[in-house]
Design a protein that fits this description.
Blueprint lengths: L22 H5 L4 H13 L4 H15 L50
Pfam families: DUF8129
InterPro entries: DUF8129
Protein name: DUF8129 domain-containing protein
Length: 113
């Protein structure tokens, strides 16, 4: 029976928080052993089919002779949804639109327009 890797033994820190869209580029620098570790971990924990497919395809490419593209990118920042925010605030926003009168879209509820 093979050793199942623990989360802290994986070649990519915070592997389980890597978005699927960035996974291919993040694993491109791993060798077959590293990808196999991630694949074993995924199968025994998240078991997410799209992730398994990405890992299996990369492992097959490595086994077919493709070389890792260099060191893995463990410190690549992930998009967390906390971007810079909008510079718009109530003092800089435009006028509040008034809905059409009784649902009639041709009624001009904005005077002077």
């Amino acid at each position: 029976m093979s050793h199942l890797p623990e989360k802290n033994e994986l070649p990519l820190p915070d592997y389980d928080h890597i978005p699927l869209g960035t996974l291919p580029s993040r694993i491109h620098g791993l060798d077959a052993r590293g990808v196999s570790q991630l694949l074993d971990f995924e199968r025994n924990h998240g078991n997410r089919l799209p992730v398994i497919q990405v890992l299996e395809q990369r492992l097959e490419a490595l086994q077919a002779g493709e070389e890792p593209s260099g060191p893995a990118q463990p410190d690549t920042p992930e998009v967390t949804g906390e971007q810079g925010g909008s510079p718009v605030d109530p003092s800089t926003s435009g006028p509040t639109p008034v809905p059409p009168f009784h649902g009639n879209p041709t009624y001009n509820s904005q005077p002077g327009r």
